[in-house]
Design brief:
heterodimer, A: 259 residues, alpha/beta, 9 helices, B: mainly beta, 14% helix, elongated
Chain lengths: 259, 72
């Protein structure tokens, strides 16, 4: 099909980074976790910090993240990744410690650890994948589940009377004085992926300059949990998730820029 | 000056999610009728109109796409 003359090393534009291992990702087809893994690995490669980066893996779909990142990793108890990251960062102040957590891990069981780590202004990077559902356990309702959204534990849709309101934890954390950079991005289009990569790069740069906690929320689809194909799930995310969770920077250089 | 691109897809790792087919500006990517070792309809290029923009590679969750580009 293609002119084989084009396929030469000198014409290479893009290839998978070596900071990711060759293990095949266990995520469902089309899941935003894989994309987010890849851009984190690319940022680590571009900054040349592979030997200094330490990943703290959560419990959830991304529990096996240490199989995919070619950096030192530590597994954490459910929700306790920011606490583990605090300890590692304090013991190795010149290393780049980042946690990679889902919404069930960060916004439900780990709320206390997350809020206190951010309030202390620990010099860590928190990557928060928000897909509004518990993916690994079979699509149960999470704190970030939208109103009216059907899940395994809210089969008639989430209601305010029974389940309360969706938790906008990113806006909540932006109010804390310890956070330096808080942003919400997504990975559904090529442009969005490039913006997310820029935000993650910014977060790691802030960490290098010891500015405080950097928090990057990444909206992702959960096509298995939402029970739709990956491309349709991305459209659904734009139409529904982004209304409640608007994309953009919330706090830059310690100043809240968006209420 | 024309820009020509080419994509090389690791079909055995592809999971057939079709996210790249939506991202491609020239719509040259499509799911194959054939399946790979895992039973997924893998993604393949259907024409040589690739411009090497790497949008497909940016959105690919599994990182199976390698992109080449040359200015002729």
């Amino acid at each position: 099909m293609f002119n084989p003359d084009i396929i030469k090393p000198e014409n290479l534009v893009y290839k998978k980074t070596s900071v990711l291992t060759d293990a095949i990702l266990h995520y469902c087809p089309g899941c935003g976790h894989g994309t987010t893994h890849r851009i984190i690995a690319e940022v680590i490669e571009e900054m040349g910090i592979q030997d200094k980066a330490i990943c703290v893996a959560p419990v959830g779909c991304s529990v096996l993240a240490y199989n995919y990142f070619n950096v030192d990793s530590q597994g954490a108890a459910h929700g306790r990744a920011p606490a583990i990251a605090t300890a590692i960062q304090r013991l190795y102040p010149d290393h780049h410690v980042f946690t990679y957590q889902g919404d069930g891990d960060l916004a439900a069981i780990g709320t206390a650890e997350t809020i206190h780590a951010c309030n202390r202004g620990e010099n860590i990077v928190i990557i928060f994948i928000n897909n509004g559902i518990y993916g690994m356990t079979g699509g149960q309702m999470a704190p970030t589940t939208l109103l009216g959204m059907k899940t395994a534990t809210s089969p008639y849709g989430r209601t305010v009377e029974l389940n309360g309101y969706p938790l906008q934890i990113t806006e909540l954390l932006a109010e804390l004085p310890g956070t330096y950079f808080v942003t919400r991005q997504s990975v559904h289009t090529a442009a969005a992926v490039r913006k997310t990569k820029k935000a993650i790069r910014q977060a790691f740069e802030n960490q290098k300059n010891k500015k405080g906690t950097s928090f990057v929320e990444v909206l992702s689809n959960c096509n298995s949990g939402w029970k739709m194909p990956a491309t349709k799930a991305n459209e659904w995310m734009v139409e529904n998730m982004m209304v409640k969770y608007p994309i953009g920077d919330i706090k830059v250089d310690g100043e809240i820029i968006k209420k | 000056m024309a820009i020509k691109g080419a994509v090389v897809i690791d079909t055995e790792r592809c999971k057939g999610c079709a996210v790249c087919t939506v991202a491609c500006p020239n719509k040259i990517l499509a799911l194959s009728k054939n399946v790979n070792g895992k039973g997924y309809n893998y993604c393949e290029a259907t024409s040589d109109d690739c411009i090497g923009c790497a949008s497909c590679a940016m959105v690919c969750p599994d990182g199976v796409i390698t992109v080449y580009k040359v200015k002729l």
